[in-house]
From TrEMBL:
Stored Gene3D superfamilies: 3.30.70.270
Chain segments annotated as transmembrane: 42-59, 66-86, 92-110, 141-160, 172-196
Organism in which the protein naturally occurs: Demequina sediminis
Protein name: GGDEF domain-containing protein
Alphabetized NCBIfam families for the sequence: GGDEF (TIGR00254)
């Protein structure tokens, strides 16, 4: 079973390595998956390297029963068990096992070879490795192993002998071994730093993407895909406070929409709203703003536009809607809309422009619907109760 697990893990090593650098997706499950992928990757690497050392030690007759063989064989078995555990879906247990095995192994190696050989330098990498093997919810375990690895490093530096019983070579050889271990540690730290930097950048990009999605949802009507009241109101306030600006506001209301909903259902009504939103959006200039004002009403904000020009733009829109029926299942609906247009100036009173456009809309309703009416500056406000009831 163990050999099958090793073979399967080695076959998936490229995928494991890719998982370390993959762009993070959202959710706890995805985060645990990335952490588990990191544990698996290092477990596979450790199984391979430990196996090579075990074979090398066994080929030296004078040390076949020595501590090196016992250490290497025990570590190999432990890493194989670690690989099986993490592949079974136990990411947290796997991470704890791996770091414990590695830390204990480094401590023992420092006792056998001495701290001058630099075997314990690899303990420094735990400070980076814990951030890849544990999730944010497991940050307590991160600090356990950061502190534990630091304590182990200090102990080996101060408590282990300078030269152990298995480092009887001369100073030149010991210096060479130290240099190899130092380079290995630095290389591993560099790789882990790159991975951590990439993960942090990818996480920031994901956060920015989610923030943009949240902003979009906060400002968008989900049915029509048009802006909702929030961005439209902001646009109106900006125009109303801009010195010398002139603009117009148009409010369009679908005629007899309640009757359509009653006769064919709200799903059909939603289909009509979405279709009209798409048609109106295609008729606007880049400087204009279109939104769903509520219910069956749409609002258009026309920047740097006079009342006559705005009336012409909305007449073309009204004509387009009236001339293009909307299909809804087996039904085809001839839809019309009434439109009210009003102009405004930079007086910081955008709500007054909206009120006059609303009054103009009711003028259109009273005049028989399916038409555009305007309310220019200076015309008196009015209320049309009959039109409000009969939309």
């Amino acid at each position: 079973m163990a050999m099958r697990a090793i073979t399967a893990a080695l076959a998936r090593l490229p995928a494991f390595l890719s998982a370390i650098f993959e762009r993070p997706a959202g959710g706890l499950e995805a985060e645990e998956g990335r952490a588990a992928g990191t544990v698996q990757t290092f477990a596979v690497i450790s199984v391979g390297t430990t196996f090579v050392f075990t074979v090398a030690y066994l080929m030296r007759p004078d040390q076949t029963t020595g501590p090196l063989v016992l250490l290497s064989t025990g570590t190999l078995i432990a890493f194989i068990a670690n690989l099986i555990v993490v592949r079974s879906g136990r990411q947290l247990v796997g991470a704890i096992m791996y770091l414990t095995i590695a830390t204990v192994g480094m401590l023992y190696m420092a006792q056998l070879f001495g701290w001058r050989t630099g075997q314990h330098l690899y303990l420094i990498t735990s400070a980076q490795l814990v951030f890849l093997m544990f999730t944010d919810r497991q940050r307590g375990w991160r600090w356990v192993f950061v502190v534990g690895s630091a304590a182990a490093f200090i102990y080996t530096q101060l408590g282990a002998p300078p030269v152990g019983p298995y480092s009887r070579a001369g100073d030149a050889t010991i210096s060479t071994i130290f240099a190899v271990n130092a380079i290995g540690t630095a290389t591993l730290m560099f790789i882990l730093s790159v991975v951590a930097h990439y993960r942090a950048g990818a996480a920031q990009a994901r956060a920015a993407e989610l923030a943009a999605q949240a902003e979009y949802l906060a400002n968008t009507d989900p049915l029509t895909g048009l802006a909702n009241r929030r961005p439209i109101s902001a646009r109106l306030e900006a125009l109303a406070s801009l010195d010398g600006a002139r603009y117009c506001v148009a409010i369009a209301d679908i005629d007899r929409f309640k009757a359509l909903n009653d006769a064919h259902g709200h799903a059909c009504g939603d289909r009509v709203l979405a279709a009209l939103g798409a048609r109106l959006r295609g008729q606007l200039r880049t400087t204009d703003a279109l939104g769903r004002w509520g219910g069956e009403e749409f609002i258009v904000v026309l920047a740097d536009t006079g009342i006559d020009e705005a009336g012409g733009i909305m007449e073309r829109m009204r004509s387009l809607v009236a001339g293009t029926p909307v299909e809804c299942g087996e039904h085809v609906h001839a839809v019309t809309m009434s439109v009210g247009v009003a102009d405004g100036v930079a007086d910081s009173m955008s709500h007054r422009v909206v009120k006059r456009a609303d009054d103009a809309l009711y003028d259109a309703k009273l005049a028989g619907r399916d038409r555009v009416k305007v309310r220019a500056l200076g015309e008196p406000d009015s209320v049309h109760p009959a039109a409000r009831r009969g939309r």
